[in-house]
Sequence to fold (242 residues):
Amino acid sequence: MKPILIIRTGQAPDSIRARHGDFPHWFRLGTRLRPQQLRIVDVAAGESLPPPRDVAGAMITGSPAMVTERAPWSERTAGWIRDAMDIELPLLGVCYGHQLMAHALGGRVGYLPGGREIGTQSIELLPAAGRDPLAASLPASFRAHTTHEQSVLEAPRGSAVLARSARDPHQLLRHGANALGVQFHPEFNAEIMRGYIRRKHADMRREGADPRQVFDAVAATPIARRLLRLFARQHGWSVATG
Fold:
């Protein structure tokens, strides 16, 4: 069987990785896929992606990098995304992956006005979500974890905007039949989210936010986490039931 790719675009911070693992591990847990179904390609470290026709789909992780830096590895991955879209390969991009997909398809990425969005946010579905094969099964609003400085400022032409937060109008984008971009982090649990807030508390204070208030507001996000499993099921990836 063809593998499902985890396209690794960076690593979680050392302090978080030491306690909780890293992006590929979190994606595997969230999708409930078996390790033997997955192939991890670390594009940020220079590893090459296989041809899109050789895989069953791909999930693109978050990263400490910025899409606007247009690093060579990132631009090569953007080209791969365009090739994958040509054959309607199932693609799920999260945070950096979401932004990179939008950039690859003609959208505009830049710094989120007003500074970083971090913590547990309320996500609100938009009218287009009611016609979407995946988003239609989600409640009208739900909680999700976020940590990002850049965002999709303009969605690609023809993409559907499915959900927003109070500060980011592009939390969930549909690109064609099989590709979804998610700004929030469905793979995070509450402890991972708290770890990011601890690490960023000085930056948050400098930007005028109250880290303690954001930390205390962290809550479980079962609906957001379910999105990973829903995407895997929708595209015929075998998901463990246990």
About this structure: The chain has one domain: 4-234. The chain has a mean pLDDT of 96. Residues 4-234 form a domain with the Rossmann fold fold (CATH 3.40.50.880).
